[in-house]
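R.M. (postdoc): so does anyone remember the format we settled on? I'll just put the structure tokens first.
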């Protein structure tokens, strides 16, 4: 396997990153352990989680597995401080009364508190990559970066990054870091798959220019590209759209399903499953460091591991481009990002 460099850090990461959004929701502890250890045995050396995953239980099970197996030093742990989309005017009814209204968002207060909590749950002295989970548009970036810089200086965090931020916010953060000598973002984590290619228009060029790694989520388009759905109104039992509804369900579109059917034919022609091709396509697109794979079971993980040593050929890339042209979209995977203004009828 050829490891890749994460941004400008010199740190080598595997071309697939283990995403753990399913850990403890719905995958139980024993299944989580088998998935994580199997991934490590295959050479995957980065694990991504977040403090909101299963209300912190995701971090807890990762910390427990790594401590019990003695493999913490083999793993680059990426976690996140919660969703930043919090606006003025929220009432106490919407918060945990034990913590009050300052428990969310990327204030200095919450960043430092959330980091301490993640360290405790992960049973580790340091976090390799600490990421902002969405934006906090009402909080100045210099305050956010100063808090993150202090965590790095204290040795509690090694590197910092962001998730689902617009290109302009990545550039703003770099300018502030340069002006004030704060630590820089080394990575951005956006949604990216064949159904939603909009990051190719601005974010990918920006990250390439400034040396920011890109670790993407939803490479299988939440299963649409893997043939999981046949009807945008009826979801199969156990699918993420059925289990979680809301914005997850909104990502399943008629046009996306139609593309998925044609995509499956391309995969069949090169002896891959649609799920394998979806991940391979994301992995080998220009500017991408690695996509996240988030299996619910070891059986879902196993077929993806051979992709670590595979490469996407130009003919297949062109066939995929014919389905959804570069920079375009047939499903909205940015539907949790307030900055992506405008509603497109898919």
């Amino acid at each position: 396997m050829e490891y890749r460099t994460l941004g400008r850090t010199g740190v080598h990461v595997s071309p697939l990153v283990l995403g753990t959004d399913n850990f403890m929701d719905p995958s139980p502890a024993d299944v989580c352990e088998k998935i994580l250890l199997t991934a490590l045995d295959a050479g995957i050396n980065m694990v991504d989680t977040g403090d909101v995953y299963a209300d912190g239980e995701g971090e807890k099970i990762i910390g427990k597995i790594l401590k019990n197996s003695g493999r913490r030093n083999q793993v680059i742990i990426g976690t996140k401080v919660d969703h930043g989309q919090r606006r003025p005017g929220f009432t106490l009814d919407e918060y945990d009364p034990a913590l009050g209204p300052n428990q969310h968002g990327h204030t200095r207060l919450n960043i430092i508190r959330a980091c301490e909590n993640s360290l405790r749950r992960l049973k580790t002295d340091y976090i390799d990559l600490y990421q902002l989970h969405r934006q906090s548009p009402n909080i100045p970036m210099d305050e956010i970066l100063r808090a993150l810089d202090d965590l790095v200086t204290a040795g509690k965090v090694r590197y910092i990054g962001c998730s689902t931020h617009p290109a302009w916010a990545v550039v703003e953060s770099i300018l502030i870091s340069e002006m004030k000598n704060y630590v820089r973002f080394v990575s951005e984590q956006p949604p990216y798959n064949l159904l939603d290619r909009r990051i190719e228009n601005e974010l990918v060029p920006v990250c390439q220019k400034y040396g920011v790694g890109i670790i993407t989520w939803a490479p299988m388009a939440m299963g649409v590209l893997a043939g999981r759905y046949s009807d945008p109104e009826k979801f199969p039992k156990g699918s993420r759209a059925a289990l979680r509804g809301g914005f997850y369900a909104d990502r399943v579109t008629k046009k996306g399903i139609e593309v998925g059917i044609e995509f499956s034919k391309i995969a069949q022609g090169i002896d891959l499953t649609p799920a394998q091709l979806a991940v391979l396509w994301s992995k080998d697109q220009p500017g991408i460091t690695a996509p996240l794979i988030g299996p619910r079971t070891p059986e879902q993980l196993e077929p993806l591991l051979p992709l670590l040593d595979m490469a996407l050929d130009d003919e297949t890339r062109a066939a995929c481009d014919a389905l959804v042209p570069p920079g375009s979209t047939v499903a909205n995977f940015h539907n949790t990002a307030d900055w992506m203004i405008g509603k497109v009828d898919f």
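R.M.: ...and that's the designed sequence above, right after the tokens. Also worth knowing: The CA atoms of residues 114 and 179 lie 27 Å apart. The chain has one domain: 4-223+277-314.
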